[in-house]
């Protein structure tokens, strides 16, 4: 028969080893933490304002398109309304313009709905 003996990894003698605590060289006081927080906040706000300043498209106001209100009748479609106002024959661009003016998500219309359409100049 064979025997197995294990040696302890550390000695449990009279002087027990105390756990080692590592301390960093910097300790912040309450005022120091406040200064770090406010400085970080200032940097974040400065970056946000710098990036938001470039979001301006132009310095002048855009030109408004003259429009009129059209009430959708039963059986009316966006294609039909756009074909009535498309003087150059480009019905798709007229449809896109009507969708943009009215913030439409789809080409579906309901009877009684009021739409802003560009004024046709003859």
Automatic annotation (TrEMBL):
Please give the start and end residues of each transmembrane region: 33-56
- Do you know which Pfam families this protein is assigned to? LysM
Stored InterPro entries: LysM (IPR018392), LysM_dom_sf (IPR036779)
Q: Under which name does UniProt file this protein?
A: LysM domain-containing protein
According to the lineage, what is the superkingdom?
Bacteria
Q: Which organism is it from?
A: Nocardioides alpinus
- Domain LysM intervals: 68-117
Sorted alphabetically, which keywords does the UniProt record give? Membrane, Transmembrane, Transmembrane helix
